[in-house]
From TrEMBL:
Family: Belongs to the acetylglutamate kinase family. ArgB subfamily.
Compartments where located: Cytoplasm
Binding site for substrate: G68, G69, R90, N190
One Pfam family here: AA_kinase
Keywords: Amino-acid biosynthesis, Arginine biosynthesis, ATP-binding, Cytoplasm, Kinase, Nucleotide-binding, Transferase
UniProt cross-references to PANTHER family, sorted A to Z: N-ACETYLGLUTAMATE SYNTHASE, N-ACETYLGLUTAMATE SYNTHASE, MITOCHONDRIAL
Catalytic reaction(s) noted: N-acetyl-L-glutamate + ATP = N-acetyl-L-glutamyl 5-phosphate + ADP
UniProt GO MF annotations: acetylglutamate kinase activity; ATP binding
Domain Aspartate/glutamate/uridylate kinase positions: 28-270
Name of the featured protein: Acetylglutamate kinase
Length: 301
């Protein structure tokens, strides 16, 4: 008798391919920056929540950090407030900050927590203000050789991981909104979510920082080529930074900060692809661009 063919066999092969990565990442903290199209497309949002819950049940410790660019822009338009960006960062007036705070903590975070909690009592939302998780000071970017005032935009000065670590120890999935309070002037600041995620990843001694974006990864020679760099070192990335598009700068600066402060890998992945997180972590091929510390070059991912 011939062996019966099982149509589900390819699924078993996929699971076996994931085995070494499951072993490698088990018990490790993974900080994921949620943003871009993944946070406005309903199917992508649902797939993202499934990925995060999968990571949790596979023994990893996911921490989500989110911004809310599209939602903030839409709400500012409704209020008749102008959106302006400088050096890739949103100029944030006091009026705009009220909207940012409302959208991040009251809309985006609530929706994400709700999606995750469809799979069980897992997610807990907090902002950088809560338990002094993120402390910031006023950030003034250097543009054309001059420091420019862009309003209530914060630069991270300190991270207190206590609340997040307590949630992880309790088997929860922390969902962190990227706003922070200053201990110097008492203001609440809008912190770039890429920057906040990188700072949290470093402070938590995370295994990996993952940044969801609306491109396939870091391009080798954009716009002349759509060839994606699959892997590069911190030093190689640092050389590329001055020539990157402004929107990519905070993401890649965040990746650079993370791997130079104890995070083993930082990855920029295409959030427009369903289940891109699982593809990146649990397959041999991966997806997107991975940044490694200089000393890690040549080692397995």
């Amino acid at each position: 008798m011939s062996t019966r063919k099982h149509t589900a066999l390819p699924k078993a092969r996929t699971l076996i391919e994931a085995l070494p990565w499951l072993t490698k990442h088990h018990g490790k903290t993974v900080v994921i920056k949620f943003g871009g199209n993944a946070m406005v497309d309903d199917e992508l949002k649902a797939a993202f929540a499934q990925d995060v819950v999968f990571l949790h049940h596979a023994g990893l410790k996911p921490v989500i950090v989110h911004g809310g660019g599209p939602q903030i822009s839409a709400q500012l338009d409704r209020h008749g407030l102008v959106s302006e960006f400088k050096a890739g960062l949103r100029v944030t007036t006091p009026e705009a900050m009220d909207v940012v705070r409302m959208v991040l903590a009251g809309q985006v975070q609530r929706e994400l927590v709700g999606l995750l909690n469809q799979h069980g009592p897992l997610a807990v939302g907090l902002t950088g203000e809560d338990a002094h998780t993120i402390t910031a000071t006023k950030h003034q970017p250097l543009i054309d050789g001059e420091l420019v005032d862009i309003g209530l935009v914060g630069e991270v000065t300190e991270i207190d991981t206590g609340a997040i670590e307590a949630l992880l120890a309790d088997g929860r999935i922390p969902v962190v909104s990227s706003i922070a309070r200053s201990q110097d002037d008492g203001h609440v600041y809008n912190v770039n979510a890429d920057t906040a995620a990188a700072a949290l990843a470093a402070a938590l001694d995370a295994e990996t920082l993952m940044v969801l974006t609306d491109v396939e990864g870091l391009y080798e020679d954009w716009p002349n080529s759509d060839e994606v760099i699959s892997r590069l070192t911190a030093s190689e990335l640092e050389k590329l930074l001055p020539d990157l598009a402004s929107g990519m700068v905070p993401k890649m600066q965040g990746c650079l900060h993370a791997v130079r402060n104890g995070v083993h890998t930082a990855r920029v992945i295409d959030g427009r692809v369903q289940h891109s997180i699982l593809l990146e972590i649990f397959t041999d091929e991966g997806i997107g661009t991975m940044v490694v510390p200089d000393a890690e070059e040549g080692k397995a991912a």
